[in-house]
Design goal:
This protein has 552 residues and is of the alpha+beta class. Helix content is 36%, strand content 14%. The longest helix has 34 residues.
Length: 552
């Protein structure tokens, strides 16, 4: 039987769903369970449904996760055998405790440092950086994925780690190293191998470097000067001390044409390129990190169990009730009694991808079309955008009646909302949520077409032109798009060059600076918080070097 607790806050139903075996009404694995039936059994309001939709759709996608930066869910992850992982450090020793490990070498390379020989300063082997490449000896199947920009170093991005580390004082910032230690210690009893977070690219806190991974290579990186046979630099031309997320700076030279100065200048450009390549490598994961598999059927989330602000910029789960925090911990301990198996389960991001790919451009263009001045232009554009989509669901022998349109509407929903393996656990909540989101979108499109269809008939058959007030639809689609906040609504309007990429701002430290403080032109502030602008920007390595002259 289903273990389901339904309760009501205000007029909203919340479902505490812990389902492993469907009850008799869902007993036949070969049956197709109508999403409307699941929704009736496990109702979700639109705000929660959208949040759950975006949790699924954004999982392991860097762009989406930065657009929905405050994560609230805990998703079992699986990393296959023979996956490459990278770690940089200042000595040649394999870590003897938990440490951070990256999925892109550019990430670790940037943290290995850009050590340079300087005149009158000793450079020893201890000044070198070491870059390890590991491979997984066996699958890592007890790993927690934290959604959102979960390595952004500040609240509320770190709320999930606050809960897992059982931090009592929620007004204090999370000490990420202390939290990692506590989380790894907590997980020892059930074999937790680590947890995955998003910084610039995905990283994992690996709890043990001696059990499930082995070294492929350990590169002792030469001083930056040595590789291109440069002598030690003059101190007056060397950039000041900096972290990987800070821009190297060079004072204006007394002799711009001196070879010594220009050698230092080139090294600064090379260092900036290393930072640029780190950020660009993170953007490779905008479509999704395919080296990790997520088990959404066992996702643990407070969504739909208590009020969580649907605005993913300002929501905060550090303040949820203590019993819910404890339930999250207990549920994770139960799940990880057995290894994560993401296979033979519905790949929900495939379902959400098909929906966003189809309806993102349609919604964007419908929204802009509704603001044309004359009703004919609006109606024509609605027809151009929706006619063939609607026609696909209308049989020629069917009269255009409310009853028949409902049948077409249902057929459309079933075209996009489906599953491939028997539903279990959180699948029910996800299935219900996708149904809710898609149904609202389809209802809007059908309603717009219905109005436009009548206007089109009057204009093109009866030659009657009347003004129509689109205000209601403008508000309706505007509110819906604001709630959905899909990443496809954020684009570079120009095509980026081969030496550029379309940059979605990140929230933690990076070579482009730390969030809005360094890049105010990439964010808007609404009086409450910073938000990423919908118009993204093409970036190249020179955007890192605001204080560095061009090469001479």
């Amino acid at each position: 039987m289903n273990a389901v607790l339904l309760y009501i806050i205000g007029n909203t139903f919340y479902a505490n769903i812990n389902i492993s075996i469907p009850d008799s009404s869902f007993s036949d694995e070969n049956d197709i369970i109508d999403p409307a039936l699941v929704y009736d059994r496990f109702p979700v309001d639109l705000a929660n449904a959208s949040s759950i939709f975006n949790t699924v759709h954004s999982g392991l996608k860097q762009k989406d996760s930065n657009i929905h930066p405050v994560g609230v869910s805990f998703i079992p992850a699986y990393i296959p055998q023979n996956t490459r992982l990278y770690h940089a450090r200042s000595d040649r020793n394999i870590p003897d405790m938990f440490e951070w490990i990256a999925f892109n070498y550019e990430f670790s390379y940037s943290f290995s440092g850009f050590k340079r020989r300087v005149e009158e300063q000793e450079f020893s082997r201890n000044d070198r950086g070491f870059l390890f490449t590991f491979r997984t000896k066996r699958p890592l199947n007890k790993v927690i994925f934290l959604d959102g920009a979960s390595a952004a170093k500040s609240a509320p991005f770190m709320d999930q780690q606050m809960i897992l580390s059982k931090q009592e004082n929620i007004s204090e910032p999370v000490d990420e190293r202390l939290a990692a230690e506590k989380i790894c210690n907590w997980g020892k009893s059930f074999g937790l191998q680590g947890f995955i977070r998003l910084e610039v690219g995905y990283e994992m806190v690996l709890c043990d470097f001696h059990e499930n991974v082995e070294v492929i290579s350990n590169i002792s990186l030469a001083a930056a000067n040595d590789l291109i046979k440069f002598p030690a630099e003059e101190l007056k031309y060397v950039s000041g001390p900096h972290m990987p997320h800070q821009t190297p700076k060079v004072p204006l030279p007394p002799n711009y044409n001196s070879l010594s100065y220009n050698r230092s200048l080139l090294l600064n450009h090379l260092q900036a390129v290393s930072g640029f390549e780190w950020v660009r490598s993170g953007s490779y994961q905008d479509p999704g990190e395919e080296r990790i598999f997520l088990d959404f059927a066992n996702m643990i989330t407070p969504l739909n169990k208590t009020f969580i602000n649907p605005d993913s910029y300002i929501r905060n789960i550090s303040y949820i009730a203590q019993n819910l925090k404890e339930a999250i911990i207990e549920d994770l301990e139960t799940i990880y009694k057995t290894p994560t198996d993401p296979f033979y389960k519905t790949n929900w991001p495939v379902v959400t991808n098909l929906i966003t790919l189809k309806f993102s451009p349609m919604l964007v263009n419908l929204n802009s079309s509704l603001y044309h001045k004359d009703s004919k232009s609006v109606s024509d554009n609605i027809q151009l955008l929706t006619y063939n989509f609607i026609r696909r669901y209308i049989s020629e022998d069917v009269n255009y009646t409310e009853q028949n349109m409902e049948a077409a509407y249902k057929t459309c929903v079933l075209d996009y909302v489906w599953y491939t393996y028997p539903l279990q656990g959180s699948d029910y909540l996800i299935y219900s949520s996708i149904f809710k989101v898609h149904s609202v979108i389809i209802r809007l499109i059908f309603d717009l077409f219905d109005v436009s269809r009548e206007l089109t008939y009057q204009i093109y058959v009866n030659d009657i032109h009347r003004k129509f007030d689109w205000k209601t639809f403008q508000i309706r689609i505007g509110n819906l798009m604001k709630l959905l906040n899909w990443s496809d609504f954020y684009q570079c309007s120009q095509k980026c060059g081969s030496d550029e990429f379309c940059y979605t701002p990140t929230w933690g430290p990076s070579p482009f600076g730390w969030g809005p403080q360094r890049n105010p032109e990439l964010f808007d502030h609404d009086g409450q918080t910073y938000r990423i602008r919908h118009e993204l920007k093409c970036m190249n390595y020179k955007d890192i070097m605001t204080d560095i002259p061009s090469l001479n």
